[in-house]
Amino acid sequence: MRIRTRSFPPKFQTGVHKFEEPQRPLWRYPSGEMKLLWSDGGNRFRPDLAATSLRILGTMRLRAGVPWCLALLGWVGAGGGLGLNPTQAAEPGPLAPPRPNFAPVGFAHVGAPVTGGDGSEPIRVRSVQELQALAGTDEPRVLLLEGTFELRRQSVRVGSNKTLLGGGEGAVLLGGALYLRNATNVILRNLILRDSPEDGISLSGARRVWVDHCTVMDCGDGLIDLTHGTDEVTISWCRFGYQNLKNSHRLASLLGASDRDRACEGRLRVTYHHNWWDAGCLERMPSVRFGRVHVFNNYYRAPGNRYCIRSRLFAECRIEFNWFEDVRNPWELMVTTGDTGRIFAAGNVEVNTRWENPGGNVRLVSGTDSVFAPPYPWQPDPPQWIPWLVTNHAGAGRGPFAR
Q1: What tens digit of pLDDT does each residue of 81-134 get?
Q2: Which of 170, 313, 323, 333 has the greatest number of CB atoms lying within 10 Å of its CB?
Q3: What global pTM score does this model have?
Q4: Residues 6 or more apart from 275 whose CB is under 8 A from it?
Q5: Is residue 342 annotated as part of the catalytic site, yes or no?
Q6: Domain ranges of the chain
Q7: Active site residue: 239, 250, 284, 312, which one?
C-alpha cells in the first residue's frame, strides 16, 4: 500500500528566496502494512514490531495514529544498521531521538582538519563586488555574508583558505554560482544558492572542501558538481531540490565530468552525510565516475525521480544507513566503458520504493560488492531517525551558527 503523510514535503513560497517550513508534528501513518526493507549486502529483511523483542522478519503493521518514529524505535535495539546480527532478538531502543552531531567527519578531514580562514579577523560582506574581491584570493579569510547577493549570471571564484559563512537564516546567492578551481582548504556554510544558470557550486580540481548546511535549488546544470581531479570533500547537512519542474535538467550532483575526465582517477574521495535530497531531483544524488564515495544517513524523498545513486566507470559507492522514500531505484550501476563500478549497500530503509530496470546500460544490483573502507572514524545515526533529524536540521538556517 502507499503510505500517506501529512504536510510533507514542505511547500515553497513563490517569489521568495526562502522556504516555508511547516510545523513538524510527529508523523502518523494510517493503519495497514508498511513495507520496510533492511538491506545488508543484498540480503533484505522486513521488521515485525508486534513482538516485545524485535526480530527482523515478516512485515510491519502500524496501528492507526501511531507515530512512525515510535513504531521503529526497536529497530536500533535489534542492531539494524549498526553492524549486529539482524536476526538477533533485542529489547526496544530509546524513545528520544539522537542529538544531531555537527562535528566534522568524512574525507575532507582525513589527515588534517579543514580550517578555511580560521585565525583571520572575520569580514562582513554585503555586496557582490566585495564578495568577488575578497573571496578570489588565496589569503586566509572568514567572510560573513549578509542578505541577498544578486549575481546576475556571474560566478564568484573562491580561492584557497576561505570560510564563507552566511548569517542568520542564510545568505542568499541568487542567479550565479560559486566556483572553486584548484582551491584547497575551503568551508562553505549556511548559504542559499538559487537560480544559477549553471551549477550552483562547482568544484574543479579542488581539495579539502567542506560544504555544510547549505541549501541549493533550481540551478540550470548541477546543484553541486565535482570534476577534474577534485578530492577530499565532505558535503553534510545540506538540502537539494528543484521548484522549477519545467527544467528537464534536474540533475543534482555529478562526480567526474565524463569518461575522459582521467584527472579524477584515484581522486574524487567524497563523503555525503545527513543531506536532504528533496522534491524535484531527477537523478545524480550523486552519480559517480572514478571516485570513492561514502553516502550515509541521507534522506531521499524525490517522487518522480529516475534514480538516486549511480555508480559507473571505476567508481566505488558505499551506501549505508540512508532513508529512501517514494523514490525509484535507490541505487544502480551504469555500464559504459572499462570497469563497471561497484556498490556496497547496508542498513538502508526503503519506504514505497520502486525498482525498475530501464534497460540499455543500466543494471540493478543488490549491493554486495567489495569496496573501500572509510579511512576516518564515523558513527551513523540509527536510520529510523533520519527523516526527523535531516528535515529538522539540514539546509541553511539550521545549524548552531544560524543566528
Answers
A1: 333 332 333 333 456 889 999 999 999 999 899 999 999 999 999 999 999 999
A2: 170
A3: 0.80
A4: 235, 236, 237, 238, 239, 240, 298, 299, 390, 394
A5: no
A6: 128-401
A7: 284
